[in-house]
């Protein structure tokens, strides 16, 4: 009787270890899947994905599309880029190019006559002697 209990306990321990090991493998697979997805994105798509999903922690398809098509071409010479959400419909993108700091304010609008979302941008370029590390 004691032997059956020991065998059952040993079986339960091995089963638990196997389940924990399998869960660890599935997490690794999910992370690998995310990196594979990133590897399949174009530079424009990756830029928009990082700005919207990683920096803003949002899922805004319209903003991603706008960043890909309208903003990414402006960033090709930028050493550092970041985005901040100023309000529910305004974003600030800052690009650093050498001693030049370029700020773009993007405003998101809804056109009620045509039932569509659109964006407008305004740019401010600031030249400085030296831009402090941020």
Provide an overview of this structure.
The chain has 134 residues and is α+β, with helices and mostly antiparallel strands. It folds into two domains: 1-40; 41-127, Nuclear Transport Factor 2, Chain: A (Roll). The protein contains three helices and four strands; from the N terminus they run H-H-H-E-E-E-E. A four-stranded antiparallel sheet has the order 1-2-3-4. The mean pLDDT is 81.
State the gist of this model.
By secondary structure, the chain is an alpha+beta fold. The chain contains three helices and four strands, in the order αααββββ. It has a four-stranded antiparallel beta sheet with strand order 1-2-3-4.
Top keywords for this entry?
134 residues; alpha+beta; Nuclear Transport Factor 2, Chain: A; 2 domains
Describe how the helices and strands are arranged:
Layout: H1 2-39, H2 43-55, H3 61-71, E1 80-85, E2 90-97, E3 100-111, E4 116-127
Antiparallel strand pairs: 1-2, 2-3, 3-4
Under the CATH scheme, the architecture of the largest domain is: Roll
Spatial separation of the terminal alpha carbons = 69 Å
Rg, please?
Answer: 25 Å
CATH fold-level assignment of the largest domain:
Nuclear Transport Factor 2, Chain: A
Strand order of the largest sheet: 1-2-3-4
- The shape, in one word, is elongated
Structure class: alpha+beta
> Would you list the SSEs in sequence order as H and E?
HHHEEEE
Helix content: 40-55%
Mean pLDDT: 81
Contiguous uncertain segments of 5+ residues: none
Q: Given the structure, what is the number of helices?
A: 3
Percentage beta strand: 25-35%
Q: What summary fits the major beta sheet?
A: 4 strands, antiparallel
| Total count of strands | 4
Q: Which CATH top level class of the largest domain fits?
A: Alpha Beta
Number of domains: 2
């Amino acid at each position: 009787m004691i032997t059956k209990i020991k065998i059952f306990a040993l079986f339960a321990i091995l089963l638990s270890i196997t389940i924990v090991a399998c869960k660890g493998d599935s997490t690794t697979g999910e992370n690998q899947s995310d990196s594979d997805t990133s590897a399949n994105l174009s530079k424009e798509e990756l830029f928009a994905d990082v700005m919207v999903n990683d920096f803003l922690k949002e899922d805004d398809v319209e903003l991603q599309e706008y960043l890909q098509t309208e903003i990414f071409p402006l960033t090709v010479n930028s050493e550092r880029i970041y985005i901040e959400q100023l309000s529910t419909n305004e974003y600030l993108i800052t690009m650093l190019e050498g001693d030049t700091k370029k700020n773009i304010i993007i405003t998101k609008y809804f056109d009620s006559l045509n039932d569509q979302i659109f964006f407008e941008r305004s740019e401010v370029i600031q030249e400085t002697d030296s831009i402090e590390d941020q």
